[in-house]
Design goal:
By secondary structure, the chain is α+β, with helices and mostly antiparallel strands. Helices cover about 20% and strands about 30% of the residues. It contains ten helices and 27 strands. The termini are far apart.
């Protein structure tokens, strides 16, 4: 990432006694002082020169620094405590780390080259740092540009549904942090860096340790302007955090969900000047420079509708005009899937079409997670999982908002994991490409919901203890699906996949520890056990609403 200035290093001592350091890039256009954009991460500010190529440098997430210099902003890149040039112990997204960023913000605000108006910038970990610093409420922090970042480390990615993550820690913790320190001639184990993975796995419930690493719980005290930007392609890592951050903060706020479809697309979008000029630069210009550019007149919520490939807008999330649609799981064959059962999703519950689906695990044909690979080397991702697929839709329907799966299930074990994925099958013939619409996870022993935060369409789990299930007894499990927006056109289908693990091909790097699971699970879908998928549905303009018989 080329810039036309040489940075200089600053340092300050935090309230915890650690010396933390940052590099400062100043514009050449004038002598200042300047409004400041600050990003903080463990990715070593000394590596800023590397290009944002996702396959090799997925941690280069600064955005276009030169653009902001040209627009009259100072840019500050900070090493979080215990990483790079900063002293202390690395304690990712802890409140202590947030307070260190707070202290750097206040130090920067007092510098003669700063106007004292600070905004934060950056994606992924840099976005974690934004939420984390904001909860400590620095006096001179004026706004966030929170692109692609979780707010609740436990629920958003570390223990989704109570199931421990595995693959991501290899890609992120080792690939982007520890080995990068080694590559820079620093110790992998120094400053507590080697302890992080053990701490994460040492806290399998949402205990006090986890709570101090979840800005979510304090975001309702944040009243500065927040632009929260997510991407459908990062749903399995950060997307829930962008929605929850938007939901929780109390000040002026906007939500934008982009159509970036992969981790790589999301990173590349953030590196593009055109995107920043359209979305983030106006936000900073208004809140840090006082420019009356109309940015606050933008719709409060904008989102990319998958399947339609268009940006739509609304006044809140979920959109206020949604209703709830239900699709019932059925043992009737869809005729569309080569899977373990080829079940159906139907709009009218029927009790006489196969009341249950049994499957046993681990499957000896699994080869890359749940994916099977045939003799020609071709992977098949649904052949060894349970599926329920709709018939081709007879009219266009848009599902936008929240989703929840009510699954009546039993096991011959005292616990079971449920991982679900909802996909759009365009053209309806079951051939690729497929579009991932939403996902959800649940360990049955973590099924207890928090009544204060749970809603009809969004179960919020306590995760405070394990409650084993009784073998052979059926339980109604409510599985939160990640926010979604998809247009299912006439002739398209939706497919629901269920297993207790995932494909190491389609879901990498967000794969979970399989554990020691051996057994048989049963999904019940009869008149007494109406397993069903519930989705928010938004009316389409110019179509007949078949519930009211009115034209929208």
């Amino acid at each position: 990432m080329d810039v036309n200035v040489t940075p200089f290093e600053i340092e300050t001592k935090t309230r915890h006694g650690d010396v933390v350091r940052a590099d400062v890039y100043l514009p050449q256009i004038s002598a200042g002082p300047f409004p400041v954009l600050l990003g903080a991460s463990p990715y070593q500010k000394a590596l800023r020169y590397l290009p944002p190529i996702p396959a090799v440098f997925p941690f280069i997430e600064y955005g276009p620094i030169q653009l902001y210099l040209d627009e009259g902003y100072a840019y500050v890149a900070m090493d979080t405590p215990g990483t790079g040039r900063s002293e202390g112990v690395w304690d990712p997204v802890s409140r202590t780390e947030g307070e260190a960023i707070h202290d750097m913000i206040e130090h920067v605000a007092s510098s003669d080259w700063s106007t004292g108006k600070i905004g934060m910038i950056g994606m992924s970990y840099y976005c974690w740092s934004q939420w984390n610093a904001a909860r400590t409420r620095p006096l001179h922090l004026r706004c966030l540009g929170a692109y692609d970042g979780a707010t609740d480390m436990y629920r958003d990615w570390m223990y989704q549904g109570g199931i421990p993550i595995q693959g991501f820690l290899n890609a992120w913790l080792f690939g982007s942090v520890l080995l990068q320190h080694m590559g820079s001639g620093l110790s992998i184990s120094g400053n507590g860096r080697s302890q992080v993975i053990y701490d994460m796995y040492d806290h399998p419930f949402d205990d006090e340790w986890q709570r101090r690493r979840a800005p979510f719980w304090e975001l309702d005290q944040v009243d500065i302007p927040v632009l929260s930007i997510g991407a459908w392609g990062k749903a399995s890592l950060h997307l829930r955090g962008n929605f929850e951050g938007f939901r929780r903060v109390k000040g002026p706020k906007q939500l934008l969900i982009t159509g970036a479809q992969t981790f790589a697309e999301t990173q590349m979008l953030f590196s593009k000047e055109d995107f920043h000029r359209a979305e983030l630069l106006p936000w900073y210009d208004h809140h840090l420079k006082g420019i009356d550019n109309g940015v606050m007149n933008r719709p409060k919520v904008r989102f990319f509708v998958q399947g339609e490939q268009e940006i739509r807008e609304t006044s809140d999330w979920p959109p206020p005009d949604v209703t709830i649609a239900e699709l019932f799981l059925s043992g009737e064959k869809s005729g569309n899937e080569d899977s373990l059962n080829d079940g159906s999703l139907v709009e009218i519950a029927r009790g006489d079409t196969g009341g249950e689906t049994n499957w046993s695990y681990p499957d000896p044909k699994w080869m890359a997670g749940v994916s099977m690979i045939d003799k020609e080397g071709i992977p098949h991702h649904t052949a060894r999982v349970v599926t329920y697929t709709t018939a081709p839709f007879v009219r266009d329907r848009e599902f936008t908002g929240q989703g929840v799966l009510h699954l009546h299930a039993s096991s011959d074990q005292t616990d079971m994991d449920v991982m679900v994925k909802l996909s759009l099958l365009q053209g309806g013939d079951g051939t690729p490409p497929f579009t991932r619409v939403s996902q959800g996870w649940l360990r049955a022993s973590h099924r207890a919901e928090d009544p204060d935060l749970t809603t009809e369409m969004r179960p919020f789990l306590k995760h405070d203890r394990a409650e084993p299930i009784v073998p052979g007894r059926s339980y109604e499990l409510r599985i939160e699906l990640l926010p979604l927006s998809v247009l299912v056109r006439t002739g398209d289908r939706l497919r629901l996949e269920i297993s207790n693990w995932e494909s190491a091909i389609t879901e990498a790097p967000m794969t979970h520890w399989y554990g020691q699971k051996v057994g048989t699970d049963t999904y019940h879908h009869d008149a007494s056990h109406p397993s069903r998928l519930r989705l928010h549905e938004r009316p389409r303009k110019g179509q007949v609403d078949y519930q009211t018989r009115k034209t929208t």
